[in-house]
Design a protein that fits this description.
- The chain is about 40% helix and about 20% strand.
- With about 400 residues, it is α/β, with parallel strands linked by helices.
- It has 2 domains: about 120 residues, no CATH class; about 250 residues, Purple Acid Phosphatase, chain A, domain 2 (4-Layer Sandwich).
- The strands form 3 sheets. It has a 6-stranded mixed β-sheet with strand order 1-14-2-3-4-5. A 6-stranded mixed β-sheet has the order 6-7-8-9-13-12. The chain has a two-stranded antiparallel ribbon with strand order 10-11.
- The longest helix is centred in the first third of the chain and has 37 residues.
- The two termini are about 55 Å apart.
Length: about 400
Amino acid sequence: MVRLVILFLVNVGVWAVLRSLWPGLLRGWRLGVFVGGVVLSLAVWLFPLVAGRHAELPVGDAALRVFSVGWSVAAVMVLLFGTPISLLHRWVERGARARPQAPSEPVPPAPEPAPAAGSSLSRRSLLTNAGRAVPVLAAGTSSAGLASGVSGFTVRPVEVRLPGLPKALDGFRIGQITDVHVGTFIDTRYLHDAVRAMNDAQVDLQVMTGDLIDDLDQLDGTMEALSACTARHGMLAVLGNHEHWRGLRAVRRAYADVEARGGPVRLLVDASHAFEHAGQRVRVVGVDYPMSGRSHRVKAERMAQSAQEAFRDASPDEVLLCLSHHPDFFPHAAERGARLTLAGHTHGGQVAFLGMPAFWFAFKYMLGRYRQGDHQLYVSGGTGHWLPFRLGVPTEVTVLTLRAA
């Protein structure tokens, strides 16, 4: 309900901003379209609160949910970018009205010079045009982001060069999926396709680094999709914050059932799993998400506890790899000898310009590769999403190939 109230206030703010930026825009049929869009968008957000979180809209469920996301994203953009332009425009107008008037005595007429580039008239014209561009750009950006968000994943090859990597592991391939978020916008068929993509790439090991599912009604189909893994060393998974939120017991029980039936999927919760590849022993460490209840705070002491527990069986003759949903675990993994850490959680911010995440400040490790000495971290942009909006950060199934540096 809080989200709904916020969205309502955002749309009220958008109405006020648009009236200021483009006074003639919200009149006649255009006002009707705006009101209809607001009502429909809010109704889509309200429906699960009334009918139940998993309830589907009577008609056009997926299309209406995508529309609601697109409308909300555009509204937020108009409010964020339009408000400062509107305030600046009013300040310029107030300054123009406050200038002293010409003297009352008649003076000889003089030729009126053309306004200078920095004059009040030029600034007002510039601000007017910029203000009118805001809703157009917001609608265009929202549409482009939605198109990218629902277009499906890409298979992204990544070569990782590790100093001193044993010859037996030169060419070892890992397929990574993460942040799938099976639920409102991602179904189990999408997950099947992601696992199939890793199978087709003939990776040696598949990993799932958390935030697998949001809708537990799809849990059986989700585990069936993971069980389609055909990698030589199976699939290893860790938990994310969404598993903790949506139903940790049910998720852990589902993973345990797959393993008990001899399936190829194993969940690591502050634990490790070792195997041999071409005579070389490899140990993969998986850590739990460092949270309690619905707290978002990353607690250093929880990470330290996870590191102590998860790495307890590691030995010097093994090549260590680490799986962590939150990338901030990387220093702990590197300190304990993990050559490569794979993580997700950030979705790469879902928006980037020229390869630079727009929200780079939100996480220390946002997207791509990071190094600490001879140890490396790869943060995936995510295989799915809980909000189908992406610009410059496509969803990905990552295929990592290890190479000796």
